[in-house]
Amino acid sequence: MRRAQPDTLKGRTENGGDRLSDQIAVVGTGDVDFRFLETRFAGPAGARDAFERLVADIVGIVHPDVQEVQANPGDWGIDAFVGDLGTHGEVHIWQSKYFINGFGSTQQRDVRDSYKSAQKAAEEHGYTIASWTLCVPCELDGPMLSWWTSWKKRTAKADSLSVSLESAGRLRRRLQTPAGAGVREHYFSPIFTLPSGDETDPSERGLQELDDDTRYDDALFVRQLDEARLPETFAAREAFFNAEILEREVIDKGVQSEASALATWRVRLSSTWSTAFNTACQTSPDRYFPKLYGDVLGAIETSHLQEATNLRAHVLHGIGFLHQAVDGGRAGWVRDWRDVARDHREGARKSTSAASTAERSSERS
């Protein structure tokens, strides 16, 4: 498709003034070219979200009862589904991946991770996956098609379900049918309305409130805060909660630039914490470091703005990612944080073992 700068036709007010909210862009030819979504929806991030909606709308051509799942946190490995997510229900899942630049080893891993997320959610909530369909706006080359065919057969056999691929060509042909005309026009019309210049950037990720102050009571990162005599932990829980949402979104969407930005931010966070921790150890021989927590969070808030911008996120997401590192046993707030992490893991293991024993005893009785 011809890539062109948008021509704009501004609406006029009754007194002749321009109405920016009524600007009309004229771009391209109206062909089904998935890269056009980046022009239509203001860049790669908007295109990724639009592609997810587009897939749901394509499914809706045949299945009007299709539903979408909001990430809160995570989306259960589902972008669109038909069926019943209740206990003993059965669902057909469509997973969208905006792999606009092709399909390689990184994309293979993203696909496997998304499928595992879907199966994990199904096991936890008691429903069954009858079919799982991957939708991508690209075509696979020979080696990748060979991998897909093998993975599809193994997965379908192991989990007794249908696994399918809807790549760019199949999606395009669905949109070119008479039934798909309305969806095609909505996403690929060469004439569309530009957003008003004074609107908030729709692609910016916000923060969500945590409505349960007991969530994460058994988490290691909360235990580490308690050990450091930091009794007010709700803000930390809320940051952790939002980090989970962002992490799940990055994993599920499979945008390589965002995955790389997230990995880079994690490394930077680890460096920020370790520098402050080493300084605290040199400054005091005590177990407790009264300034460590505040110093680390302050450094993140003032020095990690670029990392947040790269992910269209807030620096509080970074604080949540640091709490994830603590929860994973890679950081802490007291001198012997490694011992705290080891004791916590051992306690969790014993608790799980005791619960399993009690469950088996209950079943026998």
Could you characterize the architecture of this molecule?
With 365 residues, this protein is α/β, with parallel strands linked by helices. Helices cover 53% and strands 12% of the residues. It contains 13 helices and eight strands. The strands form two sheets. A five-stranded mixed sheet has the order 3-4-5-6-7. The chain has a three-stranded antiparallel sheet with strand order 1-2-8, with no helix packed on it. Strand 6 (128-135), helix 4 (142-159) and strand 7 (162-166) form a beta-alpha-beta unit. It is elongated, with a radius of gyration of 24 Å. It starts with 6 loop residues before the first strand and ends with a helix. Residues 1-29 and 197-202 have low confidence and may be disordered.
Question: What would CATH call the class of the largest domain?
Answer: Alpha Beta
How many runs of DSSP E, i.e. beta strands? 8
Largest sheet: 5 strands, mixed
What is the helix tally? 13
